[in-house]
Amino acid sequence: MSAVVVFRNVSKRFWLDRSAGRTWQERFIALVxxxxxxxxxxxxxxxxxxxxxxGSMVGLIGPNGSGKSTTLKLMTGILEPTHGxxxxxxxxxxxxxxxxxxxxxxxxxxxxxxxxxxxxFSRDEMRKRLDDIVAFAELEQFIDMPVxxxxxxxFVRLAFAVAVFLDPEILxxxxxxxxxxxxxxxxxxxxxxxxxxxxxxxxxVTHDLNAVETMCDRVIWFEKGQVVADGxxxxxxxxxxxAVAARDETLRSVQTPSGASDxxxxxxxxxxxxxxxxxxxxxQARHVFFTGEPMTIRLVYVAHExxxxxxxxxxxxxxxxxxxxxxxTFFGGLDLGVVEGRGAVEYVIPSLPLLEGGYVxxxxxxxxxxxxxxxxxxxxxxxRVARGDHRERFGLVTLGGTWxxxxxxxxxxxxxxxxx
Length: 420
What we know:
Number of domains: 2
Domain ABC transporter: 26-249
Family: Belongs to the ABC transporter superfamily.
Radius of gyration: 29 Å
Shape: elongated
Low-confidence stretches: none
Helix content: 25-40%
Strand order of the largest sheet: 5-6-7-3-8-9
Distance between the termini: 57 Å
Mean pLDDT: 86
GO cellular component, one term: membrane
CATH topology of the largest domain: Rossmann fold
InterPro entries: AAA+_ATPase, ABC_transporter-like_ATP-bd, ABC_transporter-like_CS, ABC_transpr_TagH-like, Bact_Polysacc_Export_ATP-bd, P-loop_NTPase, Wzt_C
Number of strands: 19
Number of helices: 9
GO molecular function: ABC-type transporter activity; ATP binding; ATP hydrolysis activity
Order of helices and strands: EHEEHEEHHHEHEHEEHEEEEEEEEEEH
């Protein structure tokens, strides 16, 4: 298949002016200083090369400021490269910044015809498309209102409808779709899928990695203006999530209760929990874990006098407040006997069932009959779970089940219903 978008060693430089003032006096001083001090340069892209084949759907991912939006603006001709060559072969429609290409004083109807004219369509051709555009945007009541009075959601609905009904050969979509409500987002994604089946080349920038992994053939990962990875969607998204998890690792993986506020820690103090360690399968302290990997929660305690058969427990809550579980040593059948001095207990999870999200951890030490609380730390510890290779994304936990298709059961059920 032929390439419709080609970047060859493309770099884009911007000049930063940090000395601009607000008042005329500040601006005059800044103007004088500008001649004395060289301006600071910022490279949004450095030596980027890739090609996008006709009919493919490619996702661009990466953190904010990594160069994704600059790449789209170079692709659409809004910006010119400082170095290198950008080639685009085909009629391109873009959804970048909200309201780009719309005149605020003109009505929605007038802007539809204006955008059509910019793409080379006659008034008659746009008149044939108008009803479909207005219906898709759900703006029948507001199409003759000046767009300066539109809400952000109305703006993006009209912009998307115009772009996709102009029969683009290449469609470029930035995060602008996030402005619409959930129902319209699903509607847009469905229409993008239809365009893809028709052979439209689609370039998508979004932080919704599930959408990228589900819809895109290929993903290009940007970091600091350079391409880190370019390949199959699932693998690149998986590597990106692993990098994000590694970046999020902090010293909080070994956490102490010294910063507890009033109401977060209480107890008689005959046993105190001195530290909580979150460990991976190799015993390394971590703050971010992947669904399905081993995890160990270690409670380091000090018994300040001999205590007979204390119980250590923990509670995990999702960041939305939902209580996930509350295991303890008594439920687990572990009798510690008499404890004194320093020691540790561990809760070992062979395969972490928690799904992606943030979690908070409470820990406790108490008597078996709950008559005395030695030490309780209420939601003092935090950790994150990343998706990893697991594709489930709804709810709090995965049950680890498997699916099977039994066609024999369907046949026997049909025969039974016919006899009845």
